[in-house]
Amino acid sequence: MYRMKVMKFGGTSIGTPERMQNVAGIVSKGEQKVVVLSALSGTTNRLIEIINLIKHYRVGEARDFIYKFKREYDNFIFDLFSEQEYLDEAGSVVDRSFEIIRDFHSDNISTEKENEFLAQGELLSTGIFQVLLDSKGLKSGFLNALNFMRVDKDGEPDMFFIEGNLANCQESNPGKDIFVTQGFICRDYFGKITNLGRGGSDYSASIIGAAINASVIQIWTDIDGVHNGDPRWVEKTSPVKELSYKEAAELAYFGAGILHPKSVFPAQVKNIPLRLKNTFEPEQEGTLISAKSRKDRIKSVAAKDGIIAIKIRSARMLMAYGFLKNVFEVFEKHKTSIDMISTSEVSVSLTIDNPKNLELLLKDLQSFGEVEYDLDQSIVCVVGDFMADETGMARTVLNALAEIPVRMISYGGSMNNISMLIKSADKKKALESLHRDIFKNR
Ligand code: ADP
Ligand code: ASP
Ligand code: MG
Prior knowledge:
The chain is of the alpha/beta class. It has helices at residues 17-28, 43-55, 59-80, 84-102, 111-135, 159-171, 201-211, 245-253, 265-269, 323-333, 358-365, 393-400, 427-438; strands at 5-9, 33-37, 140-143, 178-182, 185-187, 193-195, 217-221, 242-244, 274-278, 287-290, 298-313, 338-343, 347-352, 370-384, 408-411, 417-423. The chain binds adenosine-5'-diphosphate, aspartic acid (ASP) and magnesium ion (MG).
């Protein structure tokens, strides 16, 4: 059976009229495909700023902000289209979204309204992009993600619903070579508009790829693939050619900002390769993520901020069974997941990344003993395939961090990751030092 591909473009890839033209050129080539777009770069942040102004009753400022914001979109389409017909079509797309944006007042704030407001970012970019494809004579169909993308009660993608409804949407657009749809936005279990979280368009692309059993899911961004270090913190990083799903998932989860943390899983379930590509250098091969892995090396180092360390000391833990179970139940009750864990005879240390229910969580934990917690921690995560490593990888890693206080270490949870908990203030130094020591001969 014929398998389409999925191509997702992030905000920077379409953030200027020239860049959007460049993307139209990239998608015009080759076989049938689904194109998933984020909002233009900066748009989601701006929408959030406006929401905050409105929530704080700073109505005048919000109005000025929206006015300037609309002007930016008017200028964008003015630069993009020279023919009046297409300028008018794109103008209607912009007007429709800005009507919804203007309709958000301090007196009608609800989560649903807020999510509908945020959804305009992706509806704007995809609407304008489809007019661009039209203007080039390319046959495209517009798929509104709100008609097929849905999460269930637990916030997980409802694959059955998505597969059926996406197929219907595609069938009602016969003879099209390119299907254009939005990343990030979806509906919840009750049918209300919601989204997949910041950076969620990668996740959308992976879900869509799994739903249509795509031949490949391409994530096009502003860098030539996953690098062996975080280029925002370390100089002279270089792209990794191949990663296994497991390695990529660990990296995405532990802070490699290039991929949404959940975006590997849907592709992995269907064994569909993910290919990360650079929109600005399309000839570069980028990174291939698949079931295969090169066994011989540490692939990359990432770091995740905003970690909270919690330590529980309890004499009752001494040789007692069932203690950890009781502790875990508290985390389950407060819907807070644990990232790292380390135990000694009378204490257990854990990390979490979600402060939402921290106070209640700490209060409940106090029933077990003395509880301490520390904010502003980071997890530094070294990822690779360690089965084949015979050269003392743990030694290399710990040596590299000799000058930095390490609060917790986790090794052996999987053969793909060594994680260390450090203070966020030490993160840059830790990443640089690890990069220097691990990749010095490569
Ligand atoms: P998009 O808007 O296309 O979704 P993102 O900004 O979300 O792009 O992701 C790309 C950025 O991720 C890069 O510009 C880079 O700064 C950052 N990044 C963080 N860690 C890594 C890594 N290990 N490899 C490559 N890029 C990374
Ligand atoms: N536009 C959304 C965001 O900025 C989703 C995405 O870009 O992936 O988070
Ligand atoms: Mg992103």
